[in-house]
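User: Sequence in, structure out. Go.
Assistant: Echoing your sequence, followed by the structure tokens.
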Amino acid sequence: MTDLKFAVQEKGFTVAHIKTDSIKIPNATPEIIQFVMNMGKAYGYTFEIEHEYEKMCLVNDAVYIAKVKDGEWEATGKQFAEPYVFKTLFSKEPLIFEDYAQVKQVQTALYLDFNENLSEDEHDYKFVGKTGSFVPVVSGSNGGLLLRHVEGDKYTSAVGAKGYRWMESEIVKNTNSQKNIDISYYKRLADEAKDEISQYGDFEWFTS
């Protein structure tokens, strides 16, 4: 694949992205496509055209968002594949409850600390498990701090959970408490995705 990268570049084309089994070439012509196919065969590869993109924003080796020529959006990597972000900014599909669920997994254990109405040094820990599905909820709706148990009586905020209160997704769904979902959490994710794309070009043009 390294040989292929250099060979494509020597022919005057840009290699936007390359992995062990794929290559992305902006403005690829039939000639360069055939060249890639032929070179692949010489190395034992059988390449196929998986997608032709109309637009693509490549953030790093593992994260990108692209619009396929048939109009569908494709996200690779967590940031743009987050359902609320993907549907709100790109696909414009209607949101369903499951799109708000945030799955957290740790090696130790997850706890919810229902301390909202307790004094600063008091805690009400509820064991959840090593994996759980959660939804951020607004203050005053009986949510807890989502914590990862470290050791003994030491806890730390679960990744991505700091600054918000949480409830298990099934409880929110089964008690029809969707109105308590803290939308600011998801709007922050969407704003961060917008800012990321805006580093490379005009966001409104890209999503139009």
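User: And one key feature?
Assistant: The two ends are 34 Å apart (CA to CA).
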